[in-house]
Amino acid sequence: MKLNLTRTFWIRTATIALILVFSVFLFFIGKQHTVLVDNKAVTVNGVELKALQLVEVEVNTLGSMELAARDRDKFDVTGQKHKVTVIYTDANWEEHTIVRTFRIPLMQDMVMILLPALVANPEGDQSLWLENYELPTYAMTAPAEEPVVTDDLAVLVEI
Amino acid sequence: MTLHMTKTQKVLRFMGNNTVPILFLIICAFGIPLSGYSANYLVSEVIVRIARNSFLIVSLLIPILAGMGLNFGMTLGAMAGQIGLIFISDWGIAGIPGMLLAMIISTPISIILGWWCGKILNMAKGREMVTSYIIGFFMNGIYQMIVLYGMGAIIPIRSNALVLPRGYGIRNTVNLIGIRKSLDNLLTVRLFGIPIPLVTFAVIALLCLFVLWFKKTKLGQDMRAVGQDMEVARAAGIRVEHTRIISIIISTVFAGYGMILYLQNIGTLNTYNSHMQIGMFSVAALLVGGATVAKANIRNVFLGVILFHLMFIVSPMAGKNLIGQAQLGEYFRVFVSYGVITISLVLYEVRKKRDRGLAGLVLAAEQEETV
């Protein structure tokens, strides 16, 4: 079969290519991730960092939440680049605000921000306080068996 | 020359032409007071349903223009839309980008299915509706094979929330929380306390404008000509079969988009049943709006959605208040949705015969005058 390289052919090819590029763009901006914010004692580079007594944390503009020591919560975000704002009070009752941006790997569903590590390394690399998180296998409950009803009238056979 | 009709004849003719909407108006007029719902509640529910269903129903207009009757094959497009939604749920794409991506995925599937459906319908000229209805059932089998056995086994699906415990096949229900109401909530205004999803209405308005514009294009005029008389259209140089296939492709693609819009509003995908129900209800709603197999317009769409869904909303509560059982209302609305299709089809045939008789009378009167 001979390919007819007419103007129409090129316009169609360009349109399809454009739609494919747009699809990839949508995939990048629409990919949803869960950001866990964790306020538990953590060991970073051999140093144990204690949990904060009380910390206020916000990811992007999704509303802030207060976490006490040993608390963990989550934010659902879309896209890869985000901003975390942490407000805490130190031992001298001075309030500090840390604002950092971070990037989530595209295919990573869950990441966890280790708040004590972020507070200890506010200027440090994101790898010090952000880790990829996989749901532990024990947390995944065995899904219940479910009958698939593909035909509404199938029930009549049993009568 | 025209036949002179008395006022009574004119009224009877009007009622005959609008039997179904009048019947529904009467049902609603009885049902609304019996249900006990407030006007505010009813209006807000009807607005939700207009936003949810209109796009799907508008997708039925173009095949009617091309003389192919009510496209029950719109379920094919709905299946394509659902496949798009399954993929974006698995990939975790949320919000408007998720919806757009689902639409992009559904488009080539809808085009292929629409082309295939159109080809078959060209082989069954004059019996398009029943053929498209059966094609829907046949395609449902293939859809089930792909979704129930292909996905997870051949087509990679990562999410445990989607795959059946056996490791392949998609679960009965898919949670669309990522895209739930993402379009409806994009811009909402409250009018007398009733939320109006402006962007969804804008999208529906755009589709209506597209249909109006399309009717005036060369292709739209060709479709109208094909719908009126295929042989005359062929003699005029119109590619009849090609035009009919295009009308089905357009309808199928829009049905896919409509299904995505519908499910983003609901927030849950009933994997194996949603698409089958939607074809029947969309056709019924259009017929309730006063459309026929051969003629339908945008007015019919909106009147149909309002009347049909008003009946849907009030009938369970009306049944409960009247007899003490909400179940009766449920039976009633299912019975009515199938019944209305039957009544409309019968009335269409009766009207066609009556019009033929009238045309005969006009011809006879003209001949008498000539003699």
TrEMBL record, chain B:
The chain crosses the membrane at residues 20-43, 55-88, 94-118, 130-155, 192-214, 245-263, 275-294, 301-319, 331-348. Its main location: membrane. CDD domains: TM_PBP1_branched-chain-AA_like. One of its GO terms (cellular component) is plasma membrane. One of its GO terms (molecular function) is transmembrane transporter activity. Pfam families: BPD_transp_2. Keywords: Cell membrane, Membrane, Transmembrane, Transmembrane helix. It is found in: Cell membrane. InterPro entries: ABC_transp_permease. It is a multi-pass membrane protein. This is Ribose import permease protein RbsC. It comes from bioreactor metagenome. The lineage of its organism: unclassified sequences, metagenomes, ecological metagenomes.
